[in-house]
Sequence to fold (414 residues):
Amino acid sequence: MSKKVCMVVADHPFIDSRIFKKEAKTLQKKGYDVTMIVPRKNGYLFDIDGTPFTDRFLGRSFTHEGIKIVTYNWEDSRKQLSKVLSNVNTWEKGGAFNNPLTQLGIAQDADIYHVHEYLSLFAGIGIKRIMKKTKGKDVKLIYDSHELTPDPFDLRYSEEVRRNLKEKLLYMLQEIDYIITISHSIKSWYLAQNSCLSVEVIYNSPPLDERYKPKAYNNNGLITCYEGNMDQKRGSKEKIFGISEICSKSINFQFKIIGGTRFGDSMSLPEHLRSIIKLTGWVDYYSISQHMAEVDVGWVDYDSLEHSLNRSYAMPNKFFSYLNNGVPVLVNKCHEMESFIRAHQCGLVVDKTHATAQDFADALLYLHRNKDKLKQMSVNARKVMEELYSWEKMEDRLFNVYDQLINNDLKFHM
Fold:
């Protein structure tokens, strides 16, 4: 009989590339019985850009690509989940675990619960405790920490709230069986809090595309790409406009945006840049490689690092998406990405934490003048993915985490 896994999700879209397309599908391929508990907002499930699915995925539970999906109303979960900030001794007596995530999770009667955010971790603590008390079942709990919560530098919360969040996190970590995270810096942070924790790094890498063809870099132009969300925190449109304006005055230049604004937002291009900046909109996850085929350089700009430790520690999806397609990465001075690029010679780092449009444009014009270097960076980018960091390599890490939990459980019961 296959082991049952329950993914518990507080905020992410159910078809999130990491949670659904990679982890859930990978575990299903390995033979696990996978269920996901996911939120509806305003009654609907939502796409990766926040667009509600109003014409499909309407059932309270259904099966999608072999994965069982169980839904709940996001709005109904917030009040109880917010009790994570209350005294830990009141969590059970105060009804903190009487929330949809915990209750639906218990109903799945799974063997391993895999949670993906701070609040779903709180729900998972409730699942683990109640399953033990009511069913005598020792379930395993994995915390997939996509980022550090709380971010020690995040000024959106007061110092008192950040301190309370951290205290509760350290308390909950005592009941976790394994932590998965997305960078070595975040792993090091967890181990600095508790050296006895089991922590694995699983990068947000895509699977290798067999259709990949090496880039020749023999044309006169340069195509730069940004992939992902464009909002207040990511994908600064003003810098994209500035980079495009500066570079297009000197060379045959194009800026390609794969993704863009989220549901309800829009972006208008200046008239004089409409032939230079190309918007693909949001595309199917598996077609990203096709859109990257003509791209020369991938752009990442994580500004305001003094207000976000997560940005300094980040290894975002787009970073590995570029590398997977042999696209060298241009980034400002961010600790984790900078270390990776310098170690593998697969891109260029602007040596400033606050890089301007002019700084990035100067770097792009340098790369345009040095196509041989750019081509070697491209070769290095694809090679490091093939040999070390593709999703196929990350699958082995994920399987190892699950195997350890299951084998330890078997030994305990022998």
